């Protein structure tokens, strides 16, 4: 089975395999990797604010790229590499979100699942909460 590009052609290798969202996906994945490397736990009382920043900077945009490509009749097909990057970026951002609450997880959520939750809840923070179970319920 071959992926189809946004222009309707078949995906091959290299640049021909890229969707119109390629650079945005690359930037989101790079930002998530960099943030994971430099993460330091937030100060007392700042966990919720920092966690929300990870939702705004990462979870929402990653999910948005996926949704935008699959709505409006465009039905863009991402290359396998782009889907891996979206998947890794989403899970990096989710791990950062959870770490703000002292929860160490290695999530393995799909972008499709995140998008489905977002469509149901209309709340990117709820996407992160449901996929990480953070903050822990007391």
H/E topology pattern? HHHHH
- If you average the pLDDT, what whole number results? 88
Beta-strand fraction estimate = under 5%
Number of helices: 5
Q: Which regions are unreliable across 5 or more consecutive residues at pLDDT < 50?
A: 1-13
Whole-angstrom Rg: 16 Å
Give the CA-based shape.
globular
Percent of residues in helices:
55-70%
Q: Sketch the major β-sheet.
A: none
Distance between the termini: 47 Å
* Number of structural units classed as domains: 1
Structural class: mainly alpha
E-strand count: 0
List keywords for this structure.
138 residues; mainly alpha; 5 helices; globular; DUF8055 domain-containing protein; DUF8055
């Amino acid at each position: 089975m071959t992926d189809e590009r946004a222009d309707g052609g078949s995906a091959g290798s290299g640049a021909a395999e890229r969707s119109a969202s390629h650079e945005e996906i690359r930037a989101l994945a790079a930002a998530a990797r960099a943030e994971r490397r430099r993460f330091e736990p937030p100060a007392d009382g700042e966990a919720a604010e920092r966690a929300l920043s990870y939702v705004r900077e990462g979870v929402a945009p990653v999910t948005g790229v996926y949704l935008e490509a699959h709505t409006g009749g465009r039905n863009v097909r991402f290359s396998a590499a782009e889907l891996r990057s979206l998947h890794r970026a989403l899970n990096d951002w989710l791990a950062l979100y959870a770490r703000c609450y002292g929860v160490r997880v290695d999530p393995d959520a799909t972008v499709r699942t995140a998008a489905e939750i977002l469509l149901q809840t209309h709340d990117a923070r709820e996407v992160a909460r449901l996929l990480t179970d953070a903050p822990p319920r007391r």
